[in-house]
Amino acid sequence: MPVIDSPSFFIGKGGGNLISFGSGQPDLAPPEEAFAKLNNYREFKYGPVRGLAALCEALVPTYPDSKPEQFVITNGASEAIDLVLRALYVPNGRILLPRPYYYSYPHNVRLAHLTPDYYDLADGKIVLEELKKKLPGARAILINSPANPTGTVQSPELLKEIERLAEELDIYIITDNVYRELVYVGEFYQMGGPKTITIDSFSKTYGMCGYRVGYAHSYDQKIIDQVVEIKTHTSMNTNILAQEMALAALKSPRDYIDEHSRIWRERRDMIYEGMKKLGLDLWQPEGAFYVFPKITNSNQAVNELYFKYNIITYDGNWFGAPNRVRFSYALDVEKIKIGLERLAEFLKNRK
Known about the structure:
The protein is of the alpha/beta class. The protein is built from eleven helices and 13 strands. The protein has two domains: 118 residues, Aspartate Aminotransferase, domain 1, CATH 3.90.1150.10; 219 residues, Aspartate Aminotransferase, domain 2 (3-Layer(aba) Sandwich).
């Protein structure tokens, strides 16, 4: 029996008797308007490296006083983060990451020949006084709110203070906003400013993970132009059909997002209350679609849950948080119920 020591073991797995609390893959379908693009689409040539002009233009209203050329459409948010980090390269450049972090962040930083450094969160929240000690001399700080894996949302007041400090210290802010529409407590605050680089995606808001459409935006035109130049020599254009589908999704009625938000909240309440009844120590998610309970010997737990109980979960070690396990609730309520029953059996037999 292999030892599961990386999320790569689980990516793409599912179906049958498996209950997957693993990948952050929404089970809710994209808007019908996106699928309608498939009916008569016949384009097949290369597209602009920066992205389809119509999609860039449609994103402008989301960012006050922005221009279409300040966007680059990427293969998901993952490529946007990769390209932005490479564009920010300087020798010995230090990138501040939240801990717990999304599991790819440290790898992304190292692959860009930069150095990851960490500011530790307290129950998923930024501790400003601790962060202040880390900021001087950093190349950039990465903010993720709503966050994966913690499900927490940082307050607008705190994020505004970080904006002020970053400007004072001449530090870039990379803000990962892929869960911006999934907020249940508090409010989403869109960070801005001349040195802010925003990462976003159609994957979570519109259930389009497999289509791989994300983007980077910045008012710093030099950074975006560098990103476009790097992309020219790597992936070139992002899938043009997927971009057309993303544009159609963006123009779909707001009811689509509001209805899905209601569903995510219902699932959040169900899994949170279910885990509390099982005696697990966790905080209630404020956004995104993850819970992050304490479970000792988390790697052993993840392996046992998969091989003995047919449950996929993600080890907190992968997120810089040993003895926690991440559960995604991006699956329907019947599967959540079955998963909680299996989890109860696991916990009972573990005692």
